[in-house]
Specification:
The protein is α/β, with parallel strands linked by helices. The protein is built from 25 helices and 13 strands.
Length: 619
């Protein structure tokens, strides 16, 4: 018999062991045992099962007799299942298999959902040689496989939302162990492992499920940090869309477009709130040339009361909440508004509504900024990018077709932010150490990237690494790998999350931002440059792996673009160890350059609008 049967219940459903009950079972120093008459009188005074459980807990040597006496008098009571089950536990400890079996069966008859009783009966039946009965009881203890798959899956999703990532991963994997070919479960498990820094994230140790299958079903967000291959990223995204975004069978917009004096420009987003996308795009919305464009926001965003949301809504000519509408209702509203160009700002990120796009409510539809890669929704026409993030020779590997903005693809808000005063002392950093910074989410930190950081730290022993405090699991995993590489734990510092203003201000305290690959920093890299912090990136193949290259090219920091892992490590080490090798463009000079280039939103709006005008349709 296993420990599973050693659970003591109160009638409320437990398991709730009374104090000293099981812990005292088997003691050699006997408890006082009242005579039979006294025992019977005491038991008869117990009004319900809870009372008899309490009495049994205070007289463990007589517990079985107490339960038997009480059950003789009260065995038909609805709460008697607790006494029957506890009696089975005691008889199991005493080695009375037949008695254990009978008592467990009685408990199960009264409470069929008491899986512990089914397990106890099954174990006892097996020990008594009745294998058929054992199997029947054990099957009764389990929901059907389909139910177990669904239960583990749903529990895993709830734990993920609750940020209990380790427990979530266990539940998701338990679901896959029953049925390994579940793309949606694989997607959540792979990304959960990325957020935990559990490497390799797609090696799930599930029989019948290979790494290649897990990598294909990893989902749109995970693929950006997993694959530096635009074709693979497109394949992952297309597979997800095929499974999750059905074709409604109808297209709403006239293919040839409309006759309007101004281009009716629509933006669709769930992030018109305190979100990185809104901080980037706010000034662009304000600066659209109203003599040529009329701007409508189709909003799926929460009303969070933030300053940036208020600014976004004020910048729109029309604000249309569509969060409570179905995809078809929202699409028909967009069609009724005769939008010429609809720009989706989510792509395949959380909160996105790609189902709206499938109705083709506008004659021209584009994706921009929210998702940095292919969004192969068949009804999308364009992926807004630039010539660096998606080079001409890679065009065929992206879907929809790339529409290149002159210069850097990224919109930015050039307004000067109101920042608090910070110092290295206030942030717990020494004044005399070279500080590498990376405040990207830990799911972007891959095993090769962290290995490169450990090599940099070993070759530049006077440096510190300043990372964001992300998930407890990832902090623990990165710390363990750091120390396993022989590096002092006090050289790896995790900064707590703070409000946007302080986050930006403290970027200026670092010496060099170390970018991740194949998913570069985007908004964060621009913020670092704005604060005068140089960024060291590594040019990859995908859009997500070339964001840093585009940003650094825009500000003229091309000497911080590494060509590969060895070049990345050697440049970082050289900058840390030799002041003469550090970028000349840093601090206030770099901040000023950012303002002149990436921060010039008036110029960006002109270039952005030029790209849109080139694809608008007119009958």
């Amino acid at each position: 018999m296993t420990d599973m049967s050693q659970t003591v219940f109160l009638p409320s459903g437990g398991p709730t062991p009374p104090a000293g009950f099981l812990s005292r079972t088997g003691r050699t120093d006997p408890d006082p045992v009242p005579d039979l008459d006294a025992l019977t009188r005491m038991t008869a005074a117990c009004a319900d099962a809870a009372a008899v459980v309490d009495l049994a807990s205070r007289a463990p040597q007589s517990a079985a007799a107490i339960y038997r006496i009480w059950l003789d008098r009260n065995g038909a009571r609805p709460d008697a299942w607790a006494a029957w089950f506890n009696l089975s536990v005691l008889l199991n400890v005493a080695g009375d298999l037949a008695g254990t079996y009978d008592a467990a069966v009685q408990a199960l008859r009264m409470k069929p959902d008491l899986w512990q009783a089914a397990l106890a009966a099954g174990q006892a039946a097996e020990a008594l040689g009745d294998r058929a009965a054992a199997i029947a009881f054990l099957r009764q203890a389990l929901p059907p496989a389909e139910g177990r798959v669904a239960l583990h899956k749903q529990l895993g999703r709830m734990l993920e939302l609750d940020k209990s990532l380790g427990a979530s991963a266990e539940e998701l994997r338990a679901s896959l162990l029953i049925e390994p070919h579940q793309p949606d479960v694989i997607q959540h498990l792979v990304h959960t492992r990325q957020k935990m820094a559990a490497w390799p994230p797609a090696e799930l140790a599930v029989p019948g499920l290979g790494t290649a299958e897990a990598e294909l079903w990893c989902g749109p967000l995970a693929t950006l940090a997993l694959h530096d291959d635009p074709e693979m990223q497109r394949r992952v995204a297309a597979d997800w869309i095929a499974r999750n975004v059905p074709d409604p069978g109808e297209r709403l917009a006239p293919p040839g477009g409309y006759r309007h004096d101004r281009i009716r420009l629509g933006y669709l987003s769930s992030d018109f709130c305190r979100h990185a996308m809104s901080y980037l795009i706010a000034e662009l919305l304000e600066r659209h040339d109203r003599s040529r464009f009329e701007v409508t926001g189709y909003c799926v965003s929460p009303e969070d009361g933030s300053d940036v949301r208020a600014r976004i809504l004020a910048a729109l000519d029309h604000h249309v909440p569509v969060g409570t509408m179905t995809d078809e209702e929202a699409a028909r509203r967009i069609r009724a508004d005769e939008i010429d160009i609809l720009i989706d700002l989510n792509g395949l990120t959380s909160g996105g509504r790609p189902g709206i796009l499938r109705w083709k409510p506008a004659p021209v539809q584009a994706t921009y900024l929210g998702y940095i890669g292919s969004v192969p929704v068949p009804e999308l026409d364009w992926l807004l990018c630039d010539a660096i993030t998606v080079p001409e020779e890679e065009t065929a590997r992206y879907s929809p077709a790339p529409l290149r903005i002159e210069g850097c693809y990224q919109a930015n808000d050039g307004r000067q932010p109101d920042l608090p005063a910070v110092s290295r002392a206030s942030e717990g950093l020494p004044e005399d150490r070279f500080v590498f910074v990376c405040v990207s989410h830990h799911y972007k930190i891959t095993e090769p990237v962290f290995a490169a950081w450990c090599r940099i730290a070993a070759a530049a022993p006077e440096t510190l690494f300043w990372l964001i405090e992300d998930t407890p699991e990832s902090v623990a995993a990165l710390s363990a790998r750091w120390q396993a590489s022989g590096l002092a734990p006090d050289r790896l510092i995790f900064a707590p999350r703070v409000d946007p203003a302080r986050y930006r201000a403290r970027l200026a305290l670092g010496d060099l931002f170390l970018d991740t690959t194949p998913y570069n920093a985007g908004t964060i890299a621009s913020d670092a440059l704005r604060m005068g912090l140089p960024v060291l990136t590594m040019a990859g193949r995908t859009f997500s792996a070339r964001m840093g290259t585009s940003l650094l090219t825009a500000v003229g920091l091309t000497d911080c673009i590494a060509t590969g892992p060895e070049d990345y490590v050697s440049r970082a080490v050289a900058m840390a160890n030799d002041p003469a090798r550090r970028p000349a463009l840093r601090g206030p000079a770099l901040a000023a350059r950012w303002t002149e280039t990436l921060g010039d939103c008036a110029d960006f709006a002109r270039r952005f609008e030029t790209a849109l005008v080139s694809v608008v349709k007119r009958p």
